[in-house]
């Protein structure tokens, strides 16, 4: 989260390790400030990380141009 934001800010990103008995996953969550105050999460299997990371880095390269 940005330095000037509280931990419960909509801009805060929470990263946790969860184990749902099928193996560990990295879970990334942000509160989106929607009507229901639902948090939005994605779960990433560790074996998928390099592919996701590469795709994100490619997108960041495009954004920075």
Overview of the structural elements:
- The chain is α+β, with helices and mostly antiparallel strands and 65 residues long.
- It has one domain.
- It is 25% helix and 31% strand.
- The chain has one helix and three strands; from the N terminus they run E-E-E-H.
- It has one helix at 49-64, and strands spanning 14-19, 24-31, 39-44.
- It has a three-stranded antiparallel β-sheet, with no helix packed on it.
- Approximate shape: flat
Walk across the major sheet and give the strand order. 1-2-3
Q: How many strands appear in the DSSP assignment?
A: 3
Largest sheet: 3 strands, antiparallel
Low-confidence stretches: none
Number of helices: 1
Q: What percent strand?
A: 25-35%
Task: Tell me the span between the first and last alpha carbons.
Answer: 24 Å
Helix content: 10-25%
Order of helices and strands: EEEH
Taking all Cα atoms into account, the compactness measure Rg is: 14 Å
Summed up, the domain count is 1
Would you tell me the structural class of the helices and strands? Answer: alpha+beta
Average predicted confidence as pLDDT: 85
Quick structural overview:
This protein has 1 helix and 3 strands.
List key phrases describing it.
3-stranded antiparallel β-sheet, 1 helix, 65 residues, 31% strand, alpha+beta
SSE topology sketch:
Layout: E1 14-19, E2 24-31, E3 39-44, H1 49-64
Antiparallel strand pairs: 1-2, 2-3
């Amino acid at each position: 989260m940005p330095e000037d934001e509280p931990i419960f800010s909509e801009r805060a990103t929470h990263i946790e390790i969860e184990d749902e008995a099928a193996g560990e996953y990295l879970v990334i969550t942000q509160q989106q400030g929607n009507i229901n105050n639902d948090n939005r999460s994605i779960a990433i299997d560790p074996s998928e990380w390099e592919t996701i990371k590469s795709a994100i880095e490619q997108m960041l390269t495009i954004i920075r141009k």
